[in-house]
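User: I'm putting together notes for a lab meeting next week and I want to include a structural view of one of the chains we've been expressing. I don't have a solved structure, so I'd like a prediction I can at least talk through. The sequence is below, exactly as it appears in our construct file.
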Amino acid sequence: MSTYSLPSLPPGEIISLLSEWEMGNVTVEDLKNPTSEFVCSLYSAFSDSIDPLGDDPLQVSFGSLDLLENPDAHISSVQIVNLYVKMKELISSICMMNFTMADLIRPKRDRTIKFISGIINFLLFREEKLNLMKPIVDKVNLLEERCTELETKKSELMLNISEHEMRSKTEQPMVDELQAEVNELRQTIQNLNKQQMSIRALCQKLKDKTKEIDVKISGAELKLLESAQENNKLSSSIVQSPDKLQGALEEKKLIQAEMQLSERVAMESVQEKSSNIEVYTKAVTKLSKHLQKMQSLQELVNSAKTVGKDIKDLKAKLNDEGRMDMSLEAKIVEYGHKAEQAIELERATKMERDLKHRETLKELSNVKSEVEAKLRELDLREMKVQDMVAEVDNINSKISAIREAGLAKQQDIYIKFEEIFSEVHSYSKSMDDVLLRIELEKV
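Assistant: Thanks for the context. Below is the predicted structure for the 443-residue chain, given as structure tokens.
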């Protein structure tokens, strides 16, 4: 068992510390001349301060009172015995001094100051150790609060995940349907892209043909200008050479026929081009409609992707929370081991307490038997005292009777004394008269 140094504190320091701890109003006179009531109240305050959750030593249980024949006559003795057991255990754990019942019933100044100093030193030592343990306790409390916060957060995340899973399960048919539509639209887009490529190739061919036709038209116009110039020349030379004129006219007719043919071909190409343009415009409108549908479907796909991404993020958060839960579970297991150690320590303490309780009960039974024997002796003494009191009363009555008889005799003697005194006074007066007469006769 570990022991502590037990210096005796000065009375002033004891009084200041007790007033600081609010353990009663103690004076120097109480410490110099301690009484049983003072030490019982002070030791009870020390017991309440050291073990605030324990039983009050001055409170007597009904079970303990049921063991006694006359419980009303033994309440104070049982209270003193309870306080004695607690203080003996406390003093034996603090120092090597032996605490006896006389230290409660007839306390001595030196031993009382020694016990009070030891308990105060123990309280100061305990307060210092508790202050050192306070940061650890605060840290444990913060960890417990953090665990509760994480548990609530975990439950909220699990609830959100379950809601997302339920929502994904309910929206899965819609997603499948949209996926089928998206696949179909992708196929349609591929087909339309192929048609667009073919239409672009056809447009390129038509552009090439249009360029060729434009070249031909420009060549025909050039030829028309040349023919107009030649016509002017021919008109100027008609009078000069009619044969040449006839030849020029025939050549002009041929040129006009070629120009009409080329114009017809150009008109046909223009009509074909305009019809192709109409086809292209219709195809473009259809493609724009398909593109709008594709954009809406793409938006749906993007929303589905965002939902999937949110689900992945939630799963990642859930994994993080799971890892955090594993760390918390490890801490909980560690705290469980500590709790088991504390439970084992508590069991050992309970066993030791039960052992001490049994020893205390044995001591209490011994004290009870001693008290009952002393009570029997006290009863015998009380009976003897009553007999003696009766004898004293009888003697007092006799004394009072003798005193009254003596007073009566004194009164009678006083009366007789007064009678004798009056007779003596009258006799002396008569003798004075006789002597006076004798003297007068002599004269």
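A couple of points you could mention at the meeting. The two ends are 121 Å apart (CA to CA). Residues 210 and 400 are 169 Å apart (CA to CA).

User: Perfect, that's what I needed.
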